[in-house]
Amino acid sequence: MKIVRTRAEVRAEVAATRGRGGLVGLVPTMGAFHEGHLSLIRQARAESDLVVVSLFVNPTQFGPNEDLAAYPRDEERDARLAEEAGADVLFAPPVDEVYPAGFATTVHVAGLTDVMCGASRGAQHFDGVATVVTKLFQIVAPDAAYFGQKDAQQVLVVRRLVRDLDIPVRIVACPIVREPDGLAMSSRNVYLDPAARQQATALNRALTAGADAVARGETRSEDVLGAARAVLTASGIDPEYLDLRSGDDLRTLDRVEESALLAVAARVGSARLIDNRILEVR
Ligand code: AMP
Fold first, then answer.
1. DSSP track, 2-61
2. Ranges of each domain in the chain
3. Whose CA is nearest to atom 11 of ligand 1?
4. Percent of the chain residues topping a pLDDT of 90
5. 40 lines ligand 1 (CB under 6 A)
6. Which CATH architecture has domain 190-273?
7. What is the pLDDT of residues 72-127, one digit of tens each?
């Protein structure tokens, strides 16, 4: 695996593969790899001739009071894990390679970004995500890009921007990878002390309670949300949001219909965690 720092270097790697008619897969990440990231890299490996993993803690998607400075960073470990999972190129640029002096353009996806994490983290979050993902697509020009369903809203935002801006890339959403007790893997789980780590299991249990309510035939949103909220309350968690929305466009739903997204964000100890579940009516 090659580690490259500049746009020119990554483009040269991609050009060589493309010249041979090969397929290029891109896995955008902020590093601090866990099995969730590695599952994306493995999926990309299975479908691509060249797997590019980007490692960039994108400053523009962090709010002023968020954890940019504290965000876990260990490039050496990430490089080793990425290589083992099948990456060919690790693109780990410095900040000024991505945002040179005078950088002045923002990609804003309206509507989808007003709710959930867009409401609780502020508009800058998805503007930062949309802008850096657009840039990565321009730099790498991948055939496919791999994202985790853990960030369900991010997947919808990325799908919308590639459609709206006619970017010819296939967006692949990969399933949420969980710890044995159900906690969704996250780079931010390292912030959890043992008590908070235990409390954090309530997020997935709350989603399960919502899914169980639907399985019992309780499809009214207030019933599903009530079942989920009861689990959070019992664990002493007051979520930033607990929402039931269309999995296609995030409009609120009165009832669980096809592809409903039950999503939660909460501060647990010193970590902000998110999780979600697609609910299906059978
Ligand atoms: P991040 O480094 O947190 O920006 O995540 C990079 C990519 O990995 C994003 O597409 C995430 O959705 C994905 N990801 C993070 N955690 C998980 C997980 N537990 N399961 C699946 N994908 C994940």
1. EEE-SHHHHHHHHHHHHHTT--EEEEEE-S---HHHHHHHHHHHHH-SEEEEEE---GGG
2. 2-174, 190-273
3. 148
4. 98
5. yes
6. 2-Layer Sandwich (3.30)
7. 999 999 999 999 999 999 999 999 999 999 999 999 999 999 999 999 999 999 99
With a 6 Å cutoff on the Cβ, whether 184 touches ligand 1 is: yes
Q: How far is CA 217 from CA 4, 90, 228, in A?
A: 53, 47, 15
Fold exhibited by the domain 2-174: Rossmann fold (3.40.50)
**Of residues 117, 282, 275, the one with CA closest to residue 208:** 275
* β-strands 271-279, 144-148 pairing: unpaired
> Is the pLDDT reported for residue 282 higher than 80?
no
Give the nearest ligand 1 atom to 185 CA. Answer: 19
Q: Would you call 108 exposed, middle or buried from its count of C-beta atoms within 10 A (0-12, 13-18, 19+)?
A: exposed
Per-residue pLDDT of 21-40, as tens digits, reads 999 999 999 999 999 999 99
Model pTM above 0.90: yes
Q: Is 187 in the pocket of ligand 1 (CB under 6 A)?
A: yes
The 10s digit of each residue's pLDDT in 176-221 is: 999 999 999 999 999 999 999 999 999 999 999 999 999 999 999 9
